[in-house]
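Write out this protein's structure.
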Amino acid sequence: MASQKTFATLRKELLDTTKEEVVKATGPDSAIIACISFVDELESTIGKTYKKLLEWYDLFVPELELTMTEFIEAAGKQKPSALKKAKSMGGAFLASDETMIQANVKLLESMQANKEKNLAYLEQLTKKHLPNVHLLLGSVLTAKLVKHAGSLKKLASVPASTIQLYGAEKALFRHLKTRAKSPKHGVIITHPYVQESENKGKAARVLADKIAICARTDYFKGELIAKKILKELR
């Protein structure tokens, strides 16, 4: 009886400890990762929806080559049937087609608006919890690096060479397996400093060094040093 009571007490203590650890593990990093993951999925869905909707619209007005913004303007805010007044190679555009396409365009607009809301929320999160990395990279790239690392703690602990290659894991594994050309950069290739450099590999290495410094400063709640680092990069 005593052993059963001891076992029950031990089980409760272990469960309480586990719950505390789970709570500790769910910090602002988790919200940042969840938000950027949702934005990525949303962007993919928007892209696929736009592509399929444009294919549908092309059945009636195949001559038009439209960007997403132009398409929404033409198919959503104007009447597509009005465009059919010009000679077109497309099929007959019925009222039911117009109604359905415009309804789907509204869905596309709604997803776009939702994406902007999520990006604004992501901006708040990264600015508050990773002020230095945010100032250096912007909210989206900051969030993507945290996602690749798994947490701010991990981002602050890995070497700059690892940060440099986040997002290029497939190319790195291919290099290790087949001796293909080794990657020089991952997601940080999108940063203007790397984009505008003639030697992108060297620029990515320099930027990764600065990111590592900023991440460690943010993790240990240091001062805002990113302004000075930006001046150094420029």
